[in-house]
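pasting for the record
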Amino acid sequence: MSPRPCVYLAGFDVFRSDAFERGVQLKALCAAHGLEGLYPLDNALPAALEGEPAARWIYQQNVGLIRRSDALLANLNPFRGAEPDSGTVFEVGMAVALGKPVWAWFDPAGDLRTQIPHDATGRDAQGLAVEDFGLARNLMLACAWHGYSTTAEQGVAALAAYLEAAK
């Protein structure tokens, strides 16, 4: 690991109307804790690309940033529904597969049974079982991270401390 660990900043923050400014803010938080933040919008999409070629370029750039990183900080707040952003979940899985520590941040609203409406048998409106492990996210996420915090600020600080202790 380099003297200044690189942290990939995963999350749906890239879809915000102030996405670029949000990246600057997240990277400044990282710098304040001795980390280098790598934000997906650090790579400017070439003007000539659009449609599927643009999507493939973005994918390749983000995968490259994840490979370059020492750890991943993931915004796992609900996105367009009850679950985290699927792209962010993919990035978490990739980081785990590469052996990189993951720290999550989200505003917990209780365990999944508290968050997802279900009937007396534990089934949602589609008749699918709602996990009952007392976890705030799907077990495949909750068992993959090294910890979680409720805000990005707390997450950056906690990840920095975790990385320092792991040296």
